[in-house]
């Protein structure tokens, strides 16, 4: 009697080529991050000599202590966190309400309103950024947190995703809510929001990372240190080659990595569930 468990079918053999390509891709992504992590633990002289440290040094605590001295980096970190959270929550709130109105309400121009929102996806950011800056400047919002956040909280992509999900909600739910005397607000809070939890979680992760990594818009609007974000601050820390404290720049890069990574790890289950679930 043959042992079926010990028999390996040809189709079950490891694909070494695929594994090799995957390992190479991981190496290409991980190696720069590893260099940054190791560079943050060495002194400026080591990196200034052009050496690429691949093993940890003993200067990590001193580098981070020097980085936070003066409070500038702490303020930039707070500005980045405020911007990322406000952009994520603002985009979700506006998008889910817009999609709810487009799907569940009947009013003249409903389809036109949706397509007007959708058409903004076809405009590159560079096309929209200078008119947006002109509006922000005329309103006196340059170098303010409001000017940094408000122009970024509208999202046609999130509106489209919520709309497509709302279209899958059975009409029977709407009819049952009407029979129970539930108005639009109660139906939204008691039915639509609970069904949208995984979608909201997935979008929150994406939008938080989007807001945290913003570079071009803060570069235009944040003209002073009061609203300077960490991404902009890292660029300004790089002066001439001789005067740049590369160990502190790399320590700042490590700080910039931590919040997005933490959000992705903490919400990984909800993130995957929100992207893969199609039946509610």
Describe this structure in words.
With 280 residues, the protein is mostly helical. It has two domains: 16-64, no CATH class; 71-276, MetI-like (MetI-like fold, Orthogonal Bundle), CATH 1.10.3720. 69% of the residues lie in helices and 0% in strands. It has helices at 16-39, 44-48, 60-68, 72-104, 110-119, 125-138, 145-149, 156-166, 171-179, 184-195, 197-212, 216-221, 230-237, 246-266, 268-276. α4 (72-104) packs across α8 (156-166). The longest helix is centred in the first third of the chain and has 33 residues, at 72-104.
Features:
mainly alpha, 15 helices, globular, 69% helix, 2 domains, 280 residues, MetI-like fold, disordered N terminus
In short:
This protein has helices spanning 16-39, 44-48, 60-68, 72-104, 110-119, 125-138, 145-149, 156-166, 171-179, 184-195, 197-212, 216-221, 230-237, 246-266, 268-276. It has 280 residues and is an all-alpha fold.
Describe how the helices and strands are arranged.
Elements: H1 16-39, H2 44-48, H3 60-68, H4 72-104, H5 110-119, H6 125-138, H7 145-149, H8 156-166, H9 171-179, H10 184-195, H11 197-212, H12 216-221, H13 230-237, H14 246-266, H15 268-276
Number of strands: 0
Total number of domains: 2
What would you give as the CATH superfamily of the largest domain?
MetI-like
Task: Give the structural class.
Answer: mainly alpha
Annotation field: number of helices: 15
* CATH architecture term of the largest domain: Orthogonal Bundle
What is the name of the CATH topology of the largest domain? MetI-like fold
> What fraction of the residues are assigned to beta strands by DSSP?
under 5%
Q: What's the N-to-C terminus distance? A: 47 Å
CATH class of the largest domain: Mainly Alpha
**What is the overall shape?**
globular
């Amino acid at each position: 009697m043959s042992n079926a468990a010990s028999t390996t079918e040809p189709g079950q053999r490891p694909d070494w080529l695929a594994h090799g390509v995957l390992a190479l891709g991981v190496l290409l992504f991980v190696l720069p991050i590893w260099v940054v992590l190791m560079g943050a633990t060495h002194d400026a002289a080591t990196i200034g000599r052009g050496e690429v440290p691949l093993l940890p040094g003993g200067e990590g605590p001193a580098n981070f202590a020097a980085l936070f001295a003066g409070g500038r980096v702490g303020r930039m970190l707070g500005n980045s966190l405020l911007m990322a959270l406000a952009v994520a929550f603002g985009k979700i709130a506006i998008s889910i309400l817009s999609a709810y109105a487009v799907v569940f309400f009947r009013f003249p121009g409903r389809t036109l309103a949706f397509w007007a929102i959708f058409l903004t996806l076809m405009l590159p950011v560079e096309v929209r950024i200078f008119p947006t800056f002109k509006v922000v400047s005329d309103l006196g919002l340059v170098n303010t947190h409001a000017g940094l956040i408000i122009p970024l909280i509208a999202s046609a992509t999130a509106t489209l995703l919520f709309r497509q999900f709302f279209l899958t909600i059975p009409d029977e739910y709407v009819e049952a809510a009407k029979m129970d005397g539930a108005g639009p607000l109660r139906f939204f809070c008691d039915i639509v929001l609970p069904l949208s939890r995984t979608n909201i979680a997935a979008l929150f992760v994406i939008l938080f990372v989007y807001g945290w990594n913003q570079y071009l818009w803060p570069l235009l609007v944040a003209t002073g240190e009061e609203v300077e974000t960490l991404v902009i601050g890292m660029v300004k820390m790089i002066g001439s080659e001789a005067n740049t404290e590369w160990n502190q720049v790399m320590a700042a890069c490590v700080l910039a990595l931590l919040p997005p990574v933490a959000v992705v790890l903490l919400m990984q289950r909800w993130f995957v569930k929100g992207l893969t679930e199609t039946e509610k």
